[in-house]
Amino acid sequence: MKILKNSTFKNVETEKIVKEQVSSIIEDIKINKDEALKKYNLKFDNNDRDIIRVSKEEIEEAYKEVDDEFINNIKIAAKNIEKFAKLQKESFNNDFEKEIYPGVVLGQKHIPVSSCLAYVPGGGYPLFSTALMLIIPAKVAGVKRVVACSPTMKDVAKINPKTLVAMDIAGADEIYATGGVQAIASFTYGTESIKPVDIIVGPGNKYVTEAKRQCYGTVGIDFVAGPSEVLIIADETANATYIAADVLAQCEHDLNARGILITTSEKFANEVIKKVEQMLEELPTKNIAKPSWENNGEVILVDNLKEAVEISNQYAPEHLEISTANNDDIIDELINYGSLFIGGYSAEVFGDYVSGTNHTLPTLKASRYTGGVWVGTFIKTCTHQVLNKDAVKSLGPVAVKLATDEGLHAHANAAKVRLKEN
Question: Do the Cβ atoms of 117 and 201 come closer than 8 Å?
Fold first, then answer.
């Protein structure tokens, strides 16, 4: 392995400071509720709204502020995301009940959570696509109360109209104009104007991420996410222009985003590096993409694709692209990724917006143990059992003995009292 371009990725702000700031805001929300929520909305987003929930009239106004082409494009994306989510839902059509031992009937049911929050970031860009990715799977899963929120625009105390329209098309039941740590805390513990939810999903900055981490347990979360990342495995047959474009598409997310190329060809690697530099000169988001590429980008030269696969599995990237002469040769060996994009035409951008798979994916090596947001994120698999007298007679003595061996005598007694009746 040879490193042609190395990452100098650094975390500038200490984790400790972020944790303390987040903890302080959460405690304030728990105690002072709406008063604290409005205070932080004003402080961080210049949001002076008195009524946080978005009205029907505001949503109607947002439709007037976007063009028909945007609405049509959102509907195309929403349709594909919904189709894929429905296919995922079909994999849950396996509720069962079966006698596994004489007189013992066991079963399981898939039950949607009752409520969820789709957190849609505002920040530098209006990430309206995230509204579709979070709300639609929840609706398809059968969640009765799907709530969405997003920070307001800096100049007016309103959610970006494109985001608001996307939330409505996706089917949100309630929409709130708030974001940041204060939003996560409010939907976890509740305020006078906000009813808490069962699970919170969606990306955010390091403060939002830390808030989700601290609130987890009281509320469910999808996962703790970090900076966005793409890893690309390519050989000399790949298109260097495509690969360079995909690297920069990732780098423009934010200053901590990571674009990584692993290749078997040094000539190809240098060609990609050259094209990245050329594209950067004309890129409108150069102020973010350039330092992101310079500080966090990596180009790794390997002897063969087997080595590339091993490195990729160690990285466990959020997005994984492969563009080689024979992609099928390595697909089964790739086991750690949030979402896989196969072949030169399958750019990550399509998954980000319109092809139908979800773009809310695990980062920071979390793909070693979880996938991204999907219909199953909003569904609980719950078990049940029914025993008859014969089962008690047969299994009761076993339960009594095992409970006694553990020293749990009340447990043993719960079986004994039933044995006596038999």
Answer: yes
Beta strand pairing call for 379-387 and 104-112? antiparallel
Three-state DSSP state, 196: coil
Amino acid present at 61: E
Give the active site residue among 82, 271, 318, 321.
318
Name the nearest CA neighbour of 320 among 185, 353, 330: 330
**Is 110 part of the annotated catalytic residue set?**
no
Q: DSSP class of residue 55?
A: P
| Residue 392 CB partners (closer than 8 Å, separation 6+) | 103, 415, 418, 419, 422
Per-residue tokens: 103:
């007189």
Question: What one-letter code names the amino acid at 332?
Answer: D
Q: b/e for 20-35, b at 16 or more Cβ within 10 A?
A: eebeebbebbbeebee
Using CB atoms within 10 Å of the CB of residue 326, give its burial: 0 to 12 exposed, 13 to 18 middle, 19+ buried.
exposed
**Paired tokens of 253:** 């997310």
CA–CA gap between residue 421 and residue 407 (Å, rounded): 24
Cβ neighbours of residue 237 under 8 Å, at least 6 residues apart? 323, 324, 325
21-46 pLDDT, tens per residue? 999 999 999 999 999 999 999 999 99
**Cα dist from 204 to 103, 130, 360, whole Å:** 51, 11, 11
Among residues 110, 253, 319, 359, the one annotated as catalytic is: 319
pLDDT in tens, 147-190: 999 999 988 899 999 999 999 999 999 999 999 999 999 999 99
Query: Residue type at 110?
Result: H
Which position has the token pair 């076993």? 398
Residue 70 and residue 79: Cα distance in Å, rounded?
14
Residue 318 bears catalytic tag: yes
- Going by their DSSP bridges, the two strands 229-234 and 220-221 should be labelled as unpaired
If phi > 0 it is left, if psi is from -120 to 50 it is alpha, else beta; for residue 34 that is alpha
CB 197 within 8 A of CB 116: yes
Tell which residue, 370, 305, 375, 302, has the closest CA to residue 336. Answer: 370
